[in-house]
UniProtKB/TrEMBL annotation:
Its EC number is 5.4.99.12. InterPro entries: PsdUridine_synth_cat_dom_sf, PsdUridine_synth_TruA, PsdUridine_synth_TruA_a/b_dom, PsdUridine_synth_TruA_C, TruA/RsuA/RluB/E/F_N. The gene is truA. It catalyses: uridine(38/39/40) in tRNA = pseudouridine(38/39/40) in tRNA. This is tRNA pseudouridine synthase A. It comes from Alcaligenes aquatilis. Substrate binds at residue 110. Keywords: Isomerase, tRNA processing.
Amino acid sequence: MRRIALGVCYEGTPWLGWQSQAGGNTVQDVLEQALRRFTAQPVSTICAGRTDTGVHALNQVVHLDTAAERSLESWVRGLNALLPNSIAVQWAREVPDDFHARFSAQGRHYVYLLRQHRVRSPLLHGRVAWVFRPLDLALMREAAHHLVGEHDFSAFRSSQCQAASPVRTMSHIHIEQQGDFFLFRFSANAFLHHMIRNLMGMLIYIGQGRQPPDWVLHLLAQRDRRLSAPTFDASGLYLAGVDYPQQFDIPTRNPYDLLYELSGLRFAETVSEKS
């Protein structure tokens, strides 16, 4: 048996998230169907982070065990010939048995792309979120600063979240603006169910002046999801990448370059960090 790691990119709008469901309309279901045809045997996959309905991935990392002998290039081209246009394998690596797409991960990165304009764009529907009220970048950056570090994120977890602990370590947050577009980048050791969409709802409230930046501190202290803003749209959210120990040689992709392909905008990194 060989262990193969794959980097998978997908547009999440047509799918009910990553995780397999009885109806079969998920990214995992479609990928495993393609793998079954490609290897001529049943294949189970494990991913780095389960994305929700409508959420996209730029570099989802998946591993599988198989007896099939294929070149690494065949894993990419052969699978892509069997996958729909909204899903594509970007790279393949043979990895040691102690590699695990989920448990070997040391950090995860998500980006959120948002457009602020008085009129919605049908051309960006499903790929970029939209608000019509003006946003104050400085207020959102000030609020984001309070989120960096280790916190109990109970106020930002879904009621369906199955994580054993609500404590997570947010290593940094980037928030940038170019014209009508805002790009948010979140990096942490791991995320809770709906955590980023709930954080986005809160940051947008603050950016619109509906709450002050230090509202974040109140919500973190209260640990009550009911006190925060509503969960925001899934369409602007992308799993950008996953960090692994260097010995596994897992490829990374620059989310800024990939989002340039989508929006045609160049964003420069600006970091909100706490030591």
